Amino acid sequence: MTYQARPGDARPAKRVSNDAPPMICVRQVIYDYPGHRALDGVGFDLPAASITALVGPNGAGKTTLLRVMAALEEPMYGSVVIDDLDIWTAPRQAHRFMGYLPDHFGLYRELSAWQCLCHAAHAHGMDGDMAEAMALWAAKQVGLLPQLEILAGALSRGQRQRLALAQAIVHRPKVLLLDEPASGLDPEARADMSRLMKSLAAEGMTLVISSHILAELDDYCTAMLALEQGKLRAYQQLDALEERQTRLLRLRFSALPDDADDAFSGWLAARGWRVVETDRQAAALLLEGAADADAQKRLLRELVTTGHDVLEFAEHARNLQDAYLESLQDRRKNQAQCP
Amino acid sequence: MNAFTRNPEFRRNLWLECSPQRLALMPLVILLALFVIGNFGPDNDEGMWGVILSLSVVGFAGLTIVWGCVQAGNALRHEFSDGTWDSQRMSNLTPWQMVWGKLLGGSFYAWYGGGIFLLTALFAATQVEWRFIDALRGCLGLVLLALLAQALSMMKTLLFWQRRPGRTQGPIGAIGSLILIWFLAGGLFSFIGKSYRVKMTQGGIEIFWYGMEMGVDFMLLSLFVLVAWVVAGLWQRMRRELLLRNRPWWWLAFLLFWISWSAGFFTREAEKVWTFFFAAWAALTWMSGYALIFSEKKDAAFWIRFRAAWKRRDGELLQHLLPNWIVSFALALVLTFIALSLSGSGSFFRGLLCLVSLTAFVLRDTAWILWLNLKPGARHPDGAALVSLAVAYGVLPWIDARLFLPMMNVKRRWWSLSSWDFSSNATALALAIQILFAAVTLWLLHNRFRETFGKGPGIRDR
């Protein structure tokens, strides 16, 4: 069966060039709970077909932000524009091109997986063959075809997670908001989830995925939004991270050189390397510098010939967690400088 | 039937409720029970068909009112507890589809069994000297009563959720349900009881409404209109859940209907008929206002939202958020003023003073209830408000009247407004004290609002 979109239906967005208008614009959003500001002037733009990791500690406001973006909670102030529609002027219209997966799965446990998907399709305004075609498409996307006749309540946790995700995408939303989608999944299911996220983004969907376990998101996210205490602390395109990864080197010694702080840093700087991080406990340094292999070979040779006991010499992959922690450190430094 | 099967919510409920086994089992059990009890059960004046008629009515009530109420409430309660409500809110379903899909879908199996009982009751009634049209009227009454009970049960669940999101009904709510069912079942049995049957065959029930004699058809029409209002109320509440904005006119319209309809049962012909009518309407409106202020959401989150809408001058949102108890109290004040003006026992000035006194009274109570509700971490603010008001209006005056007044050998406190003697200085002083009390509670509330809104940078600053 093939899906043919009806006129006016929610269709997947096309990939857009970088100068295209953003798919999601959040402006100055404030959300208050009694005695507590959950979101404090949060604003950002996200391009279409991107996968953005929404990260932050517990209680940072991630779920509230996702619910505000999903037009489920109305903010006290600010606006959310998705695909040129201010969602709070027409929340019901906005829901037609949005999918949302809450951190609890939200399944009808007494219905079969197939009935769950058909109901979700019907509830999104599809009927007859089209509803069945979309239910089938969604089941195929999440790899749930063999389990369609099983009751939702009898599925394993990972399968229920996938069924809930299939329900959220059954109407092919342009924007998909996922709250902790990979929590509790085994490694194989996480790898499947990673593949699925990439394939949905390849279809043109814009994904925002919240998690406080950054390793889950490292594999497929293209940008990172860091929230802390209801404020946006960092927004970073991870393409830039990938470029930087090749320029990072991790060196571990039997013991750190005595002059690691000053003279050794100067010695490294003279050869085009900058010390980014010093781990005294592990006797390791993280260096940033020339990307080519010749420069690395030269450095290793000189270290050995100058009598340093090098135990480890390897390129270092900067991951999402590094970026997140770095953004927090930068902020704390700024706070310390401007009390 | 197409409209039924095209409603996804109704269809989902059918999937849940109707397996072939269940559909086959229900008529078997009902017919077997009727056959056994009809033939071997207790004797009845009207013979076997009389027994079957009574049993069918009880069976219908048990299935559609008792079990149907539970099922209609569960149609929403399970959405909340299973975490499926967000996906429903984000679906394309209209509020109207949601209301009737859940109301009739959630209790479909109960209606299926109730329908069988209704057919047997209809047939049995024709066998015991009932005219067919009267039997049909009786059945219509039963159906409307069951619909009313189920709609009320669903409304109660929805109101509870909207008042305390994230929590499903606790034991107090369950007790409330039982009281509701008991109340409706009482109405049901008086409606279809033996007296009804006897009077039906003699030409109808005597019901007086605004002094006029009304018949069974009036009762059926009343039930129909009540069902329509409760369903309209559900629709309004569902619109709220689906992020559509409401207007306060719906509540005002319902209130006007409710007081006009129900006051008719308490009024008799009197010399000052219109004064009496307005007094009855005002009393009912006051009661509705107090019932609402305890049942509606009024916590800090609500007022933060209300204040934000006020600052943005968002008139549409303000109308949507406007609490219904404010509408009720405003109407109650107007009706009271008219009733006092029409009473003819005083001047316009007297009516005005009464209005000022009542305004101060309601402001004091409202401010006190809100003050308790806005207290950070308050556990049962409405319970505390109820107890404190009961003490203020019930226990303290009782102690005063029984203990202190006899000791002081006086009949009435000088500050009591009960004499309504507006020519005396004492009454003027009493009025001033009333206003002072209102001012104090309003000041307390103002401070509480400042504490609530004072957290973090203000929205206006942005």
Task: Summarize the entry for a quick read.
The complex is a heterodimer of chains A (339) and B (462). By secondary structure, chain A is α/β, with parallel strands linked by helices. Helices cover 34% and strands 26% of the residues of chain A.
Terminal CA distance of chain A: 63 Å
Order of helical and strand elements of chain B: HHHHHHHHHHEEHHHHHHHHH
The CATH architecture assignment of the largest domain in chain A turns out to be 3-Layer(aba) Sandwich
Total domains of chain A, how many?
A: 2
| Rg of chain B | 26 Å
Shape category of chain B = globular
Strand segment count of chain B: 2
Draw up the topology in text:
The complex is a heterodimer of chains A (339) and B (462).
Chain A: E1 24-33, E2 36-46, E3 51-55, H1 62-69, E4 77-82, E5 85-86, H2 91-95, E6 98-101, H3 113-123, H4 128-142, H5 157-169, E7 175-179, H6 187-202, E8 206-211, E9 223-228, E10 231-237, H7 238-245, E11 248-253, H8 263-270, E12 273-279, E13 284-289, H9 293-305, E14 310-315, H10 320-337
Parallel strand pairs in A: 3-8, 3-9, 6-7, 7-8
Antiparallel strand pairs in A: 1-2, 1-4, 4-5, 9-10, 11-13, 11-14, 12-13
Helix pairs in contact in A: 3-4, 3-5, 4-5
Chain B: H1 2-6, H2 8-17, H3 20-40, H4 47-81, H5 85-89, H6 95-106, H7 108-127, H8 132-163, H9 171-192, H10 194-201, E1 207-209, E2 212-214, H11 216-241, H12 249-263, H13 273-295, H14 300-311, H15 315-321, H16 324-343, H17 348-373, H18 381-408, H19 425-453
Helix pairs in contact in B: 2-6, 3-4, 3-7, 4-6, 4-7, 4-8, 4-9, 6-11, 7-8, 8-9, 8-11, 12-13, 13-16, 14-15, 16-17, 17-18, 17-19
